[in-house]
Amino acid sequence: MENTSTDIKQLNEKIHQASAFVDLLNMELGKVIVGQKYMVERLLIGLLAQGHVLLEGVPGLAKTLSIKSLSSAINAKFSRIQFTPDLLPADVVGTMIYNQQKNEFVVRRGPIFANFILADEINRAPAKVQSALLEAMQERQITIGDSTFKLEEPFLVLATQNPIEQEGTYTLPEAQVDRFMLKVVIGYPTKEEERHIIRQNLNPEGQEKINPVVDPQDILNARKLVREVYMDEKIERYILDIVFATRNPEEYKLNKLKPLLAYGGSPRASINLAWAAKAYAFTKRRGYVIPEDVRNICFDVMRHRVGLTYEAEAENVTSENILSEILNAVEVP
User: Fold this and answer.
1) Where is the ChlI/MoxR AAA lid domain (predicted)?
2) Which of 58, 89, 159, 173 has a C-alpha 20 to 30 A away from that of 135?
């Protein structure tokens, strides 16, 4: 046991040093992004845990600015794809075009070939386009004609959904939403933050420029370290209890949730909860996961993986309400 505690201590020191860039990144992004600390933190967790992020919020909450600034601070390639009803899969992944001089077909790569992809208003495009993007997210590769291309790492898709306009939108099927590690719901800034935003935008000299403070290679190295973050068996059991309580609430004395849940989290929920908890611990410059890390990230990992029945919708019960009940009922290690 002594040996293990020594190992954890060494790992903790190693991660404390290696995660110093997180503060650098936060400081750099803080120059232009006001008040959206939660969203920036979640983007970083997605990046470090090799996941993708689905953002839900009304227009004008700095979603585009955040991912653009993050890619500038990491010195990575950024692409923005505006999803519209007439978008085709080839507009996202690329296509074969005929080269008359060479008398052959050549591949023209689409905007998906970048490190950071902003899929703006993903629910505006038809299922064909969504599935083309989701293949890239899952397989980290693209097939055009007979050729398959590996996508460059780090690769992060940030998809945004506008919750207020439902006309002309195609809801993402549950199986596709499940591909996103985190679904982050963001709200309005506070009065003080909004005053700061007004001043920043009205003052042309005050427009700060984001400088690269990290290299993509640093992110890849950090990802290897995130794998090494120590997770005790008790924490593993805690994660399993949370996920299993969404499937069989009666086993956790939560009989009242049974008629409200259509289905619970899949094994992907457990994997992502463990990954995200490790990444969260890393951003807090710790080499081990504590129960608080799991609780902190739980809503973002689980809210889109819990299916509600008509009864729940009729009673205005949200997935957040159900997850709160579960977190209160499941024993914390």
Assistant:
1) 259-326
2) 58
Beta bridge partners of 98: 105
Residue pair 301/182 in contact (Cβ under 8 Å)? The answer is yes
Identify the domain containing residue 155 by its residue range.
36-42+50-195
Distance CA 276, CA 45 (A): 6
What's the rounded Cα separation, in Å, for the pair 22 and 92? 31
What's the rounded Cα separation, in Å, for the pair 304 and 299? 9
- Model pTM greater than 0.90? no
Nearest by Cα to 121 from 164, 173, 180, 70: 164
CA distance 169 to 165: 8
Distance CA(257)–CA(248), nearest Å, equals 9
CATH number at residue 263: 1.10.8.80
What are residue 119's DSSP bridge partners? Answer: 81, 159
Of 331, 332, 302, 310, which Cα lies nearest the Cα of 321?
A: 302
pLDDT digits 0-9 by tens, 34-43? 777 888 889 8
Residue 1's pLDDT band (cuts 50, 70, 90): very low
Phi-psi region of 136 (alpha: psi -120 to 50; beta: other; left: phi over 0): alpha
C-alpha 112: how far from chain center: 17
Give, as one character, the DSSP assignment of residue 286: -
Each residue of 36-76: pLDDT tens digit?
788 888 988 998 998 899 988 877 777 788 888 888 888 88
